[in-house]
Amino acid sequence: MSGSPAGAGKAAPRRSPGLDVDGLLDDPDMRVIVCCGAGGVGKTTTAAALGLRAAERGRRVVVLTIDPARRLAQAMGLVELDNTPRPVPGADLGEGGSLDAMMLDMKRTFDEVIEAHATPEKAEQILANPFYQAMSSSFAGTQEYMAMEKLGQLRARAESDPDSWDLIVVDTPPSRSALDFLDAPQRLGSFLDGRLIRILSAPAKAGGRAYMRVVSAAVGGATGVLTKLLGGQILRDVQSFVAALDTVFGGFRERAERTYQLLQAQGTAFVVVAAPAPDALREASYFVERLAQERMPLAGLVLNRVTLTQVEDLSAERAQAAAEDLEDVGGHALAAGLLRVHADRMRRRERERGLTTRFTGAHPRVKVVEVPARAEDVHDLAGLREIAISLAKG
Amino acid sequence: MPPDDEDPRSSPAATSAFGGVRLHVVTGKGGTGKTTVAAALALALASGGRRTLLAEVEGRQGIAQLFDVPPLPYEERKIAVAPGAGEVFALSVEPKAALLEYLELFYRLGRAGKVLERMGAIDFATTVAPGLRDVLLTGKVYEAARRRGPGGPTYDAIVLDAPPTGRIGRFLNVNEEVVGLAKVGPIRNQAGSIMTLLRSAQTAVHLVTVLEEMPVQETQDAVAELRAAGLPIGGVVVNMVRDPYLPARTLAGALAGRLDRDEVVTGLEAAGLGRRSGATSAARSARVGVLADGLLGEAAEHAARVRLEDEQRKELDVLERPTVELPALAGGIDLGALYDLAELLAEQGMA
């Protein structure tokens, strides 16, 4: 590009196979794309850019975002959190595609599940229970369950209504660990199968026998362990919550399992998103390994915010030395300043390269696409489109 | 490190904006370096013969990675020494162990704890109901903050590497939730005591950010959320600040594309760049021209970035919180860098 023979002849570092984003988006059998990765790596932006590009190439797309930055949400026309997919204004739909987007409202999604599975009076009982209210609106982790639930719902609608969507792009919650998203359904399952639920839901029955045994074994006093731990009132709330949820649980687990299977099925692809930073790449490594373990299909890694240079063949050391020489001589302040700017950029670039090479060395078959760092965040569809183009160019 | 002849215990606090604070909660958007800042702050607070505890609660083993030691067990252990015979201890709070410890401590439920574990209650409490996990994590931090040895508090300060800004309000406020759920009983009392500490002048929630739009926006949102919840906001730590390298006039010129290309070319030639043995002078000047164009392009991008950083700085000024800046370290963070950052935090009144 620079026309410099030295630049062209320099051996490029070992490269991973490139991720063919357009090939992925154009594949008509591809129905679900899940974007996952650590927090703060541009996951939501990547999901939105993939959705936009797919729609502009003719797919009928819905993008499920979890917690978009305000300006990104505005760029996609998401002004209110109403749990309903809405058309994104401004997408170029000349190829016959469509683009809808929605933000997840976890409490509302949870409420809807309860309403769909319980009798009206039971639903009312559950929704009014203080334990339920706390769990559905403010406890971390609920987001993961509800993201999975919503994905299942969107998928069901896409199946039954051929005019709706043929591609769902999902952003995942900003968890402590990207793995929480994968673990959520199974955790729910093991909880539901657990003995605790049986004990909690049946203390009044004679099954209270198991309960009594625990109580007497543990404390041997008049009050039970749980009562002592939790206080009588909270235990009653929990018990009535669990008892009321009893009827809903079957449906819950079934759905969680179905969504889990959907993630393993053909037509689903995971895109792991990272930035060239140690934490983000470590998370990406965990995730790649975990997906393989769960036999879930990995499309590749999107590496965001990569530092690029226009002067590849002038190393940090050389630029730094040249700047120092000029400053010693004096009189070339502009050139010296520019060389310092370049030296800093090259140091960052070399460090990023090192981190990326460590990842690709450990996962040589993972396809990678790099997206250059931008000075500004995305404010509009034009910005999103630029990112989409970088993604497609590889 | 120059020797410190003054009474080491009085000097750091005298200049700090957070002298009365014992629990420093450090949060920030993912990717802003909050673990690094928390670690540097723990080092800074330990200098001059103090003892601090650096605690993490997300099971990420970020502290161990930063200090390049094996993964931390659920046990407080010394991880670093600070200038002037200070000590930093570290703890990775693990919810399951915290729950069993809690049961033992409050109820002497040695065997019952095991029964509960077999029943799946421990799993339930620590994974399925993540809110309870937050109760346990904050409870353990509270315990460490309140613990006393023979000569006074075990730790002079606790630095908590807390969940990210998106989750911090919920995390710190979880005990309020518990107070609402449990109207009476021991859990309610414990939750109430934790909230009292978190809302007191002994606590400060520091926010780590970088000068980019999303993290700054999240910082503002978090400040509003914490204020509404009555939680005491500490300082704003602006991390990874880039050196502007160029004077303001040059930056403006770079943005406008008005820098003098000939001047750059002359300078590069003076530095001997673009020279190659055997190359003709025409080939040489073509090379220098390409180099100059590339550097001018990079300077324009750099200037755009510096301008954006200045805009974000103004956004942060609106918050009217003590603000400190830490530089971007192109080489990444190693132990030496951590001590440098600690010193910068202390110089700017964070410790």
Strand order of the largest sheet of chain B: 3-4-2-7-1-8-9-10
The H/E string of chain A reads: HHEHEHEEHHHHEHHHHHEHEHHEH
CATH architecture of the largest domain in chain A: 3-Layer(aba) Sandwich
Instruction: Compute the number of structural domains of chain A.
Output: 2
For the biggest sheet of chain A, the summary is: 8 strands, mixed
Number of helices of chain A: 17
Distance between the termini of chain A: 16 Å
Superfamily (CATH H level) name of the largest domain in chain A: P-loop containing nucleotide triphosphate hydrolases
CATH topology of the largest domain in chain B: Rossmann fold
Q: Please, how many helices of chain B?
A: 14
| Beta fraction of chain A | 5-15%
Write structural notes for this entry:
The complex is a heterodimer of chains A (394) and B (351). By secondary structure, chain A is an alpha/beta fold. Chain A has two domains: 19-180 and 259-307 and 373-393, 3-Layer(aba) Sandwich (Rossmann fold); 311-362, no CATH class. Chain A is 57% helix and 11% strand. Chain A has helices at 5-9, 21-26, 43-56, 70-75, 106-117, 120-128, 130-137, 142-160, 179-193, 195-201, 208-218, 225-230, 232-264, 278-293, 316-329, 333-362, 381-393; strands at 32-36, 60-65, 86-87, 98-103, 167-171, 268-274, 298-306, 368-372. Chain A has an eight-stranded mixed beta sheet with strand order 3-4-2-5-1-6-7-8, sandwiched between helices. In chain A, helix 3 packs across helix 17, helix 5 packs antiparallel against helix 6 and helix 5 (106-117) crosses helix 8 (142-160). Chain B is α/β, with parallel strands linked by helices. Chain B folds into two domains: 17-242 and 328-346, Rossmann fold, CATH 3.40.50; 248-306, no CATH class. Chain B has 14 helices and ten strands. Chain B has an eight-stranded mixed beta sheet, sandwiched between helices. A two-stranded antiparallel sheet of chain B has the order 5-6. In chain B, strand 3 (77-82) and strand 4 (86-92) form a beta hairpin. The relative contact order of chain B is 0.15. Residues 1-14 of chain B have low confidence and may be disordered. Classes of the chains: A alpha/beta (394), B alpha/beta (351). At the A-B interface, helix 7, helix 9, helix 10, helix 11 and helix 12 of A face helix 5, helix 6, helix 7, helix 8 and helix 9 of B.
